[in-house]
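Thread: Modeling a multi-component assembly for a lab meeting

Hi all, long-time lurker, first post. My supervisor asked me to bring a structural picture of a complex we are working on to next week's group meeting, and I have zero experience with this. I have the sequence lines for every component (505 residues in total). Could someone generate the structure of the whole assembly? Inputs are pasted exactly as I received them:
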Amino acid sequence: MTNTLHRYGDAESFADDYIVFASPSRGKNDQGSIPKLKKFLEMALPFKPVNIGDPAHGGALRPSKNETVISHWHRDVKPRLRAVIDGIDEPASVAAVFDNLEAAENFLKTVREADLCLSINISASIEGARKCCRFAGIEPHSIGYSLGFEGKIEKLPNTQILALTTMCGHGMISSSLGKKMIDWVKEGRRTPAEAVTYMARFCSCGIFNPSRAKRILEDARKKME
Amino acid sequence: MKINADKCVACGNCIYVCPVGAIYVDPVIKRATVDRNECVECYACYNGLSSEHLNPVLVRTVRKLFQMVRLRFDPEPDICPTAAFEAEDLQWPRVVRRAFSDPRATHESTGVQGRGTEEVKTNDVTDRVKPGEVGFTIEFGRPGVGVRFRDIQKMTQALANANVPFEKKNPLTLLMSDVSTGTLRADILDEKILSAIVEIKVPVDRTEEVIQLVHEVEKDIDSVVALGVGTRCDENGEEHVVAPILERLGYRLERAKTNTGLGRITNSVEKSPKEGVAVL
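Re: Modeling a multi-component assembly
Sure thing. I ran the full set together rather than chain by chain. Output:
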């Protein structure tokens, strides 16, 4: 799956977006990989990731099936990083999302030193990934470029909505919700910080970047593209 | 996906969270309703909405009272107040909608998890894309547009006609009735899904040819296409072969996924692909 690859934006817009993920490969190194995946995310915590997650259970903010009426005023919006780590129970790609280069560089260096034997990828601007690899003393093995969207692109929403919704590569954050959140921020009905928590809960593997989303919403409040 | 009409209070929250806009409030019954032809069974509504378990009659009454005095009920936008969504037991061929749309669904139809394979993200241990080769991921329907298999088949048939081999373990390849012609099973052609990925691999010198072919065919496809191109780096960790081709074709390379090469084969015995891992 290519769900971290096709985020919408130019290189500059990815200055606060670095996803480092660890992948076991079926039949190659998936045996005994669960403790390594947990260790990978544990090692991310000191570098203050803005989200972590796995595709089987979700990210640090998840929906609740037992909300009460009180939740409309006192919603629990604290990311549950520990729950993500504890919940890993099958070999799957796990991801840590950072909003600054320094954190991503240092985390990647730590991961290299830990020698987990899992495939480690960084999804970011090309230059951002290059800097991280250089800092960590890594010579990349392969690279997958995003060539963006083609075809009937007239069916796509505007660029601000795209920048928000493509942060869930599985497409679980709808364009309508992205538009609604921009509108609500513009109307002052919700803060950008509140709006990103709604969207983050729909991302099913925890690669949504709340920090970048907040910035996009702040920008959209002043200027709708 | 079904919405229980006895529970729904037509608050409208679910309308906005549907990635393909398949939910609307039916003006006759005054309940949220799923357009089954457009629904891709992604379960974003079912999985993503938080749920309360309020009394539907009470909520409808309160909403009516509010409406009478032009007051707006302002609920949290990601909550279904009455837990009205109910998952269906999907049968073939509709079940393929969920397999290609709900990221948490396993491909019961194909035995493969995820919408694609591991492509270059595990290339350091699989050696799938070798030096001198280029792996393409041609994804249809993303983001949030959706696509029918009939449209995808236009591309798979064109690629097969150009003698481009398909990735064998890819879920789409497994749904082909004839891989040599890129023909998909006839009974799934009208099914709509959120996205699917065709995965192919060619020598570097066919890069431009494949991209031109994709450009030509996508004109006749009623959806969007997201192209990904994966290749090997040289011994210094640099890539100076494919990027120049892409830039010459007019692409601005902004974002990439970089495989750091830290993976190693550690399994004592290789497992069956069906015991595989979920992929991002």
